[in-house]
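Subgroup meeting minutes
Present: P.N., E.W., G.H.
Scribe: E.W.

1. P.N. recapped why we're keeping a running log of single-chain structure predictions: easier to compare across weeks, and new members can see raw inputs and outputs side by side.
2. G.H. added today's entry (259 aa).
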Amino acid sequence: MKTLFTLCSLILSIGMFAQELSGKATYQIKDIFIIKDPKPEHNTPEFKERLESIKKSLEKTFVLEFTKNTSIYSEEEKLPNVNKDGSTHSVSYGWKKLYKNTKENYFLMENDLLDKIFLIKDTLDVTGWELSTETKQIGNYTAYKATKTVIPKIINNKEQSTNFLSMNNQKELNEIVYTAWYTPEIPIPNGPEKFGGLPGLILELHTTNRIYLCSEIILNPKKPFEFNVPKGKTISQQEFDEMLDERAKEYQRKSKVTR
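Output recorded in log:
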């Protein structure tokens, strides 16, 4: 009870600090996966080298530039990983930038997954967090634990993937548990990707198959951030998902015809 009171007091005492707060948070992102049905050939040096190359290709660095109510989240530009044979691995998330307005509770996402730009606009899902009194130190900040449980959407395509990699943590995705570590010392209800809604910036986040870890924070830079809010024709996330589903069905129909 004392720890919870201390947390509430801390949030109230730094409320005024958030009025003019702006900054930049850098996140290192790693995907977690295991091998489905391990086989003897998976222990060969060649396979292990290939696996390490894939792991590196999945490592990403994203930057969150934020003010009190708005932010832009985008991937940091860097050269692709080069293998010994000269080939490169580069994995794209499909979207370019993510603009969030936490005051009006919506996001805008630039997405070119269908070979042309779509501007997806929808509501941020920032509710459902359960706050804990558990803490840990992340860099110079005291972070508090919060968890959130959600039921994943049903995917129409029920065919199992033939990829030898399987994203890890739960055998059956009946529910997904998100674990966040946030700091009230930076009283911004924001975090990586679409995550937020906590009484402080998320410094570390664990999802079913991904880890986000804040590696650098710059507060109140001398030159204020100027956000260019994405503009263009907007569609909802549901409309975009339906377009993806229709494109997948069309691809399957064409594949059957050419066989």
